[in-house]
Specification:
Shape: elongated
Helix content: 25-40%
CATH topology of the largest domain: Immunoglobulin-like
Largest sheet: 8 strands, mixed
Distance between the termini: 48 Å
Number of helices: 9
Number of strands: 19
CATH architecture of the largest domain: Sandwich
Order of helices and strands: EEHHEHEEEEEEEHEHHHHHEEEEEEEE
CATH class of the largest domain: Mainly Beta
Oligomer: single chain
Structural class: alpha+beta
């Protein structure tokens, strides 16, 4: 360890020992992509240096209990956090030679009491803590190095956090229960609002599990298709397996949604109801948000729908669409569902010509989960409560 006081600023340099590289190599080998393995390796070296600093200063750390030591989270999130007992969670970001900015991915914008910039040498033999920022402003995860607070202010900041505490920004939860009461967060729009305010491909309206050839104005065709939904129910306790011919299509769909225990049939009926009467009470409540500006500029949209069920659970549908002039999602784009503890619930990946990817699940009231959409090293995470 070496503390250097130059004419410009005070810094703290840590030799990166065999122990540091062994740990970095162990976690990087768990990654299935070379660029992800490199990121985990560098993150681990940065955390090692900051952990060493805190221990030298007499602080107790809990790196083992930090998210950055959990392989399942390393796989999906670009995080480099370090828990410091009695102080809080710090994000330790590596900076390579020649870089002129500190970059903090959006998944590390919350629940931190500080962000520490760690300059690595070309040989990766040393790491130097050069500065920090207390907080990251929304949508401002890139900070020029000349705008960092000087490292010599860090000890005073630590004591202030320890003695007085600071307000830590926690992830904003999208409350799906409130959606059922027609209360929505501002960045989640109805399909109609989405298209009236954005320039997006009209093909979005027709993408889904219902054939584009169904004409909502052709009653005869609608009844025929709804009849197949009734007849093709699987493992259902419903006593109604044929189309009730005395009912109009909307009423017949509503009855099927309420009665069937076949999840595939229910969601097909819901999607058809969206096409012919989207605001009907039996149709699942859905909203759309634009992820393009937060996903490396690639034009994609995330749709979420929620449906109350008779057993008290709630059905949730998550779907990602290509937007703009794109006919298909980029290959290898991932849609990942994580539980409250960060464990993977479901994961789907776009192939060569997918015009959407999706998954569905059932949840209990008050359950929390997260949805991550990732493309290469870029990712966006939204947090929900049912």
């Amino acid at each position: 360890m070496n503390t250097t006081n130059t004419a410009d600023a005070l810094t703290f340099t840590v030799p990166l020992s065999f122990e540091a590289h062994s740990l970095a190599q162990m976690y990087s080998k768990l990654q299935d992509r070379p660029n992800k393995a490199k990121r985990v390796y560098l993150n681990t070296l940065a955390i090692y240096a900051v952990d060493h600093y805190f221990r030298c200063m007499g602080f107790a750390t809990n790196w083992e209990g930090s998210d950055s030591r959990k392989p399942i989270l390393q796989k999906f999130l670009d995080i480099a956090d370090l828990n410091v007992r009695g102080v809080g969670k710090f994000e330790c970001r590596p900076i390579l030679p020649g870089a002129d900015k500190l970059e903090v991915p959006c998944e590390a914008w919350d629940e931190r009491v500080g962000y520490v910039a760690v300059q690595l040498t070309q040989s990766l033999k040393e790491a130097t803590i050069i500065g920090f920022v207390p907080q990251i402003e929304e949508n401002q995860g890139i900070i020029p190095l000349n705008q960092l607070r000087a490292f010599d202010e860090f000890p005073e900041y630590l004591m202030k956090v320890k003695n007085e505490g600071i307000t830590v920004k926690v992830p904003q939860l999208v409350n799906l229960y409130e959606w059922l009461n027609n209360k929505f967060e501002t960045h989640w729009q109805s399909v109609e609002e989405f298209f009236s305010t954005q320039t997006y491909s009209i093909a979005f309206r027709n993408r889904g599990i219902i054939s584009e050839q169904i004409n909502p104005n052709d009653t005869s065709s609608l009844k025929q298709f709804i009849g197949t939904l009734y007849a093709n129910q699987r493992n259902t306790n419903s006593t109604q397996t044929t189309y009730p011919t005395h009912l109009e299509p909307v009423t017949a769909l509503s009855q099927l949604i309420e009665s069937t225990t076949d999840e595939e049939t229910r969601w097909k009926a819901i999607e058809l109801l969206w096409k012919i009467k989207p605001e009907h009470p039996s149709a699942a409540t859905r909203r759309v948000t634009d992820l393009g500006m937060r996903l490396a500029g690639y034009p994609v949209a995330l749709m979420v729908a929620i449906l109350p069920k008779h057993d008290g659970k709630r059905g949730v549908l998550l779907r990602v669409y290509p937007m703009g002039n794109q006919a298909y999602l980029p290959q290898n784009l991932k849609l990942i569902g994580l539980d409250e503890n960060g464990q993977t619930l479901l994961e789907v990946q776009a192939r060569g010509q997918d015009n959407y990817i999706q998954f569905r699940f059932n949840a209990d009231p008050k359950d929390k989960f997260s949805v991550q959409v990732s493309l290469g090293e870029a990712s966006v995470t939204e947090h929900f409560i049912v």
